[in-house]
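Hi everyone,

Forwarding the result from last night's run.
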Amino acid sequence: QVQLVESGGGLVQPGDSLRLSCAASGFTLEDYNIGWFRQAPGKEREGVSCISRYGGMTYSADSVKGRFTISRANAKNTVYLQLNRLKTEDTAIYYCARHWRPRCTLSAGDYDYWGQGTQVNVSS
C-alpha cells in the first residue's frame, strides 16, 4: 500500500531551522514528483514546494522561497524539506504528498496520496 510518513517537526523559536523527512513506501518514488503542503489552524491548505522525479526542477511558494529547500534521496525512498530562518507564520501541520501530473504544481488536486502530517510550531 502507498504510504507517506512525515517526521522531523517540533517546537522551535523564530530564526531556528528544522529538517522534515517524508518516507515513502508502496510505490517507486522516482516515478513521481513529490510536494510539501502545510495547513495552519483555521486556514486553507497551502502548497509549499514540489520537486520533480529526479530533483532537476523545483517549484516553491513565494512565502518560503529562499528559506525552504526541498530535496530528495530516491535510493533512500525519502524526500526532505529543509526549513531555515523560521517565522511564527510558518506554524502549521506539514504534509508530503504524491503528485500525478508530469510537471510540478502546487495545486492540491494534482496530488493523490498524502501523509498524516508533522507539526511545526514556531513560537517565541
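The two ends are 40 Å apart (CA to CA).

Cheers,
N.
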